[in-house]
Every structure is written in C-alpha cells, then in structure tokens.
C-alpha cells in the first residue's frame, strides 16, 4: 500500500491478535508509531484496544499500563473497547485486580465482555463472594445482555473450587435457559464442578449428552473419576478417548497416571501407552 490509514494498521494488528500472534501485533503497533506521521494514521481507540489485548495475551502489564496512561491523555480510556482490554490486562496479573476494578467502574458503557472480564478476575483470585456479587449486579443491570459462556464458565470454576453444588446447579439451569449447555467451555466447566462436588452421576449425565468430543471434557471426566478413586472408570475413559482419536494433554496424562497408581496397576498397559504418547 502506498499510504496506510489508521483502519489499515488496526486491521493488521487485530488480525495478528485473532490468530494468536501477539508479538507480531505489538511489533506492528510500534512500526505504526515510527513510520506514520499523518493524522489519518494516528492510533484510535480500536488500535489501542487491540494493542492492549496483545499485551494481556503475553502478560506485558507494565507496557499496558503505559498505554493506559496514553489512552487517558487522549480521552480513549473510557471507551468500551479500550476499557474491556484494560480490564482483561489487569485481571491477568494477580496484583492488579484493584486496577481492573477501577477501570471497570469508570467505564461509561459496560457490555457482557466487560462484566465477564471482571467476574473472571475475581474468580481467578478465589474471591468467590465478590464474583457472585458482581454477577448478581450484572443480572440486575438494565443495559447488560444475558451472561455468555465466559461469564458462566468463570462462575462454575468458583463453584468447583468451593464445592458449592447448589450454586452450580443454578448456573447449570441458567446455561440451559441461555442455550449454552452444549458449548464446550460450559460442558467442561459443568463436569469439573460436579466432579469437585462429588456428584459424578451428574457429571456423567452432562458428558453423555455432549454433541461433539473435545479434549477438555474428556479430561474433566477422567480427572473427576480419578480424584474420587474410580480408577478403573478413569482408565476406561482414557482408552476410549484414545479410540476416538483425541490427543490427551498433560492434565489428562497426570490424571491417568494417578488412576494407575491408585488402582495398583503401575506396570499396566495404560502406563505404557501414556509414556509412548
């Protein structure tokens, strides 16, 4: 291109982000600042939002903070896209939750992404009550759409940690009402929640109604059975998982090894399979 405007630069930065290439996104932003001097190519709120999202992906909080200061000077910090990226950035760092909350509260327009990001931040820090308080506030907020899979999955992870079965069942009902129960993220979160709460029958029920196979759901089932001493069931699931040609990840393998140990089958064929994968 002979000339590049802000839309062209921002599109390339966003494309790098969407394909998981955060470093290239940051390098492109730096090139934009160095190479362009015209007002038409000056970064706008969407450019800054894409760049801050890239910083969040690779945990460059310090650089994101510098961009936050620039956004504030240029009047972009209150824009929804920028605020959402900043909340996500700060929730990725354990010591920056208060900064995330401040950005969230100062944002003039909050959407489901905004609410999901801050709820996820509190959930990741183990602040269960705060996460659910925010969720209740979200549901009573007049301008906020219905919770999405990210909102519900974050809260289900809190229920799994706290073994709060009643709250988890209510979230399950909300997921069904929203038509999200077959989403891979929700399904795996439900299986993990029921497994941690000791309700493997419910976990089995969710798993049996899956529409599509995925590694996370299978792993959640294997982990649940292994943790509750159902070693043979965990090993059977692992073999079936291999038969449907899903490649186990490191979490799956650790769960299978634990199941083998508890079953007293340290020399069994399952261990050999694990080591060969």
UniProtKB/TrEMBL annotation:
List, in alphabetical order, the Gene Ontology terms for molecular function in this entry. RNA binding
Q: What InterPro entries has UniProt attached to this entry?
A: PPR_At4g14850-like_plant, PPR_rpt, TPR-like_helical_dom_sf
Q: NCBIfam families from the xrefs?
A: PPR (TIGR00756)
A Pfam match is PPR_2
The species this protein belongs to is Oryza meyeriana var. granulata
What keywords does the record list, in alphabetical order?
Repeat, Transit peptide
Q: Where are the PPR repeats?
A: 5-39, 111-145, 214-248
Question: From what superkingdom does this record's organism come?
Answer: Eukaryota
Name of protein: Pentatricopeptide repeat-containing protein
List this protein's GO terms for biological process: RNA modification
């Amino acid at each position: 291109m002979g000339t590049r405007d802000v839309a062209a630069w921002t599109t390339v930065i966003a494309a790098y982000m969407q394909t998981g290439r955060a470093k290239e996104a940051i390098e492109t932003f730096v090139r934009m600042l160095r190479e362009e001097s015209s007002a038409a190519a000056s970064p706008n709120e969407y450019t800054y939002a894409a760049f801050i999202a890239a910083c969040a992906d690779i945990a460059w909080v310090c650089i994101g903070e510098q961009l936050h200061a620039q956004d504030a000077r240029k009047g972009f910090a209150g824009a929804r896209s920028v605020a959402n990226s900043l909340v996500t950035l700060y929730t990725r760092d354990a010591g920056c939750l208060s900064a995330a909350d401040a950005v969230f509260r100062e944002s003039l327009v909050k959407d489901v992404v905004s609410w999901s990001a801050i709820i996820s931040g509190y959930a990741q820090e183990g602040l269960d009550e705060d996460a659910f308080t925010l969720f209740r506030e979200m549901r009573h907020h007049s301008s906020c759409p219905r919770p999405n899979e990210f909102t519900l999955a974050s809260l289900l992870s809190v229920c799994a940690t706290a073994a709060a079965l009643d709250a988890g069942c209510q979230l399950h009902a909300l997921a069904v009402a929203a038509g999200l129960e077959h989403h891979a993220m929700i399904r795996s979160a439900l299986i993990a929640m029921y497994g941690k709460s000791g309700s493997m029958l419910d976990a089995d029920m969710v798993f049996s109604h899956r529409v599509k196979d995925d590694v996370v759901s299978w792993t959640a089932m294997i982990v649940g059975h292994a943790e509750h001493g159902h070693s043979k069931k965990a090993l059977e699931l692992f073999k079936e998982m291999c038969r449907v040609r899903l490649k186990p990840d490191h979490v799956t393998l650790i769960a299978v090894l634990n199941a083998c140990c508890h079953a007293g089958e340290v020399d069994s064929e399952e261990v050999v399979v694990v080591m060969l994968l």
